[in-house]
Design goal:
By secondary structure, the protein is an alpha+beta fold. The chain has helices at residues 10-40, 44-51, 55-61, 64-75, 80-87, 89-92, 178-186, 191-199, 246-249, 259-275, 284-291, and strands at residues 3-7, 102-108, 111-120, 128-134, 141-146, 153-156, 161-166, 206-211, 217-222, 228-230, 236-239, 316-324, 329-334, 344-346. Helix 1 packs across helix 4, helix 2 (44-51) packs across helix 5 (80-87) and helix 4 (64-75) packs across helix 5.
Amino acid sequence: MQLTELSGSRFEIGQQHARLHRRAIIASINVYDRLFHDMAGLRWHEARRDAQRFLPMIEQRFPEIIEEMDGMAQGIGGELSDILTLNCRSEISLTRASGGCSALALLNQGHQWLAQNWDWRAEQTGHLVALRIQPPEAPTLLSIGEAGMVGKVGLNEHGIGVALNAIRSATCGEGLPIHIALRRILECRTFDEAEGIANDGICAPAHFLLADGSGQALGCEVHPGNPGRILPREGLITHTNHLVSDAATHWVEDFPKPDSWSRLSRLDTLCAALSNGEEAPLAAEQLFDLLGDHEEGQESLCRHFNPDVPAEEQMETLFSVVMDLSQRTLWLRHGKPCQVKESVCLRP
């Protein structure tokens, strides 16, 4: 994953994204065409029709991103509905998919760290992008994610960072689609503004782990209503793929895989060991070692192909990120952190 620089008007940013990653965007559309069919019995033209219902919500709360998606659509020779569908893939049917991802926020000696593994279908490995985006009248941001999507995990020049955990649930209502909301958060200038995006309603359940360079952190179990809030305990927040806050579980029913609990327990254990007796400041390498964990008898944080798991449930770690928000720095490993030993260092 080489860093792609995008700047100019919203429309020009979308056009540049499409020009530089056209093949990967079209490949992503083909991947989700198959997944929509396998999971929900929808073909692409049917998914495009379903995606139209999210357009008024985006027009109301983040209208400028539509111009960027339109530039991307024209750049690949498609229509706005193609890029809209790609960016609403979680809401259309993939709430039925088994979740992945293990995330943490950790305050250590004045440095706010944010890190996660992103677990998904291996067929998307070659369609991932690292973007540095300079939107008009908004902070410069880094977003690591899938080609054709306007945002996922990353940070911006003000030290606002966000990580993501998928939540499997049948709930879908009013609000911003998950990936549109993630991009909106990455365009915020303050932590309070970022938290406000999560508080204003997200179409489908997910966990947004927010943090900033001053040491603030908050887990937001978002859904169409008021999100569940997870506060740091001794500077630490961890999350996998099940809801834990009373505020979220009261309104939303989730259907996590059993490994979500065992991964969370393992994540807590490793973070506690990392914090105990640590005199020297943390280094990114230590957090990558944690994300690359394979423990005998445990569901490991680093996930590989498992021949005993049905094809529709297969999840693998496709990339890992470690961010020092206090230093406005992101390190990226494309692939499994237990195998990839060199990190790409990026700054917004």
